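The following record pairs a protein chain with its ligand, nicotinamide-adenine-dinucleotide.
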Amino acid sequence: MRILITGGSGFLGSHLADRLLSLGHQVCVIDNYSTGRRDNLIPHPALQVVEGSIADGDLLEQTFNRFKPERVVHAAASYKDPNNWAEDALTNVLGTALVVKAAEKVGVSRLVYFQTSLCYGLHPSEQPITLAHPIRPEGSSYAITKTAAEQFLGLSRLEFLSFRLANAYGPRNISGPLPTFYQRLSNSQKCFCMNTRRDFIYVQDLVDVVVKALQGMGDPGYYHISSGRDFSIKELFDATAAAMNITLETPVEVRERNPDDVYSILLDPTKTEQVFDWKISTALEAGVRTTVEYYQQFGISQTYTHLHIPKD
Ligand SMILES: NC(=O)c1ccc[n+]([C@@H]2O[C@H](COP(=O)([O-])OP(=O)(O)OC[C@H]3O[C@@H](n4cnc5c(N)ncnc54)[C@H](O)[C@@H]3O)[C@@H](O)[C@H]2O)c1
């Protein structure tokens, strides 16, 4: 198949590209490298890379007309500056609207979208959160714009699957707590953990589901990709320190959460497990070890977060 991946030089998009290329598909990536890395993608005869923004309608139209994708994975998103609402709106809302229209025009038969679990708001009313939970993305520009994008998909004629994701981690992941812990521990800087809990999903487990969806499995609609278990951020920190063979003299500081942070995000993966005959297969400790090995080999030039987090 011909599969176009927006944001394909980023963390999730590049792992998907690798897997799809290894399965014999043709892949076209469009990315503006705002958070993606050029070296995330290894040159391959069946891989085309277009540098540019999904908010550029002309570029999108040319790319879709030339490549004629059968499937689209829409992974491009803006989130790196929580105060840059204009960039979030431009990429996440306008960019998605343009991707949807371009996909409709060339007859894309299925589109996969990645939604943030922050669409359920800062105070989810159930744990685990089910797909029936009300949508209230009021907590951040990222959540608001990603949710508007998901709603535009709902308005479209496209066949789409929106995967609402737990915290994905793995090699090439440069947002969230794990890369930050790695960087600070590497530089012997003091670390702290927020008093929050998250459901972590290893990138290859996530890719397993998405590939099944691209192959046509599962009805269109909304799904969770999650482990179904939440860990404290301190447990993640401890796994990171252990993978780096670091023993701290005193336990890491655990801080009260910021008002824009959710205490626990635990997504109910039941529908996804049933429909895709899937379950996570990577334990947190093993996934963290592989991720740390990647950071040790390739380094981290920068980390990003959509949250307002104190610097030290
Ligand atoms: N990683 C997670 O835990 C997680 C959780 C929920 C949802 N998501 C969603 O999954 C998708 C992939 O996230 P990721 O973790 O791989 O992040 P990422 O930052 O590694 O990937 C996003 C990619 O989009 C590119 N991009 C940004 N703006 C663009 C634009 N205007 N035009 C073209 N490319 C642009 C970036 O350069 C980057 O390569 C995003 O849509 C994100 O909202 C991720």
